[in-house]
Write a structure and sequence with these properties.
Length: 236
């Protein structure tokens, strides 16, 4: 992992003295074991605070159909790595410490399984999530249908929260570099649903272009009141 990652992410700094982002990824078939459920979601920001340690924690849950690039997006964001080989993910957790001028944040990113064999785990992941990235592939119309279902599921699971309809959520149309002839979801069509009907941010990305991936994650962090770059660098 290159030490320049902290520079590229603007104000993001890691907590160790070597000024290097350290990430930890552990595949878990039952990632929920040993984790305490969060019961509150702040109305003004998703990051929760451990009042004993003054340590903020934000868990991003990445949802979407299989083979849309969820793992690739996570690894490009955290490790500047483009993954070419597809491997089925069974709920993989990444974590990174972020030290800002007056805040210490533990950022957790849960890369969920794209298959439907673990519906209970998916609902549990949503229950414990603070912010959400929902991913589809622009060359796969069915994956957009799945994204719509994931959006509905998040609202359903979080329906007991007053802030359910305003919680941090970004919809990603991945693989935007695909040949136009292979595109099955147009930008206008997706914008009509995501921006006009759901009033959410819709960002197209490709794992080949790191900047597009940063835009999506930075936007979600911004919605969670965590600014790791200048506002002008965050997608709006």
């Amino acid at each position: 992992m290159r030490s320049g990652l902290s520079d590229e992410l603007g104000s993001l700094k890691v907590t160790d003295d070597r000024s290097r982002v350290s990430t930890n990824s552990t595949a878990r078939r039952n990632y929920a074991a040993g984790h305490n459920q969060r019961h509150n979601l702040h109305s003004k920001r998703a990051a929760t605070i451990d009042h004993d340690s003054q340590e903020e924690k934000l868990r991003i849950v990445v949802l979407g159909a299989t083979k849309v690039g969820k793992t690739c997006l996570c690894q490009q964001f955290l490790q500047e790595k483009f993954v070419t080989d597809h491997k089925e993910t069974v709920d993989e957790m990444y974590s990174v410490d972020i030290a800002l001028a007056d805040r210490h944040i533990v950022l957790e990113i849960l890369d969920t399984a794209g298959i439907d064999e673990f519906p209970v785990m998916r609902r549990l992941a949503i229950t414990r999530g603070d912010a959400f990235l929902i991913v589809y592939a622009v060359n796969d119309r069915y994956s957009f249908t799945i994204a719509q279902k994931m959006h509905e599921l998040v609202l359903e699971v979080k329906s007991d929260l007053a802030s359910a309809t305003t919680m941090p959520m970004v919809i990603i149309g991945n693989k935007r570099d695909i040949d136009i002839s292979q595109r099955e979801v147009t930008l206008d069509y997706a914008n009509n649903i995501v921006r006009d009907q759901w009033a959410l941010d819709h960002i197209e990305t490709t794992c080949h272009e790191r900047e597009s991936v940063l835009n999506a994650f930075h936007r979600l962090l911004h919605l969670s009141n965590i600014n790791i770059t200048n506002n002008s660098d965050i997608a709006t």
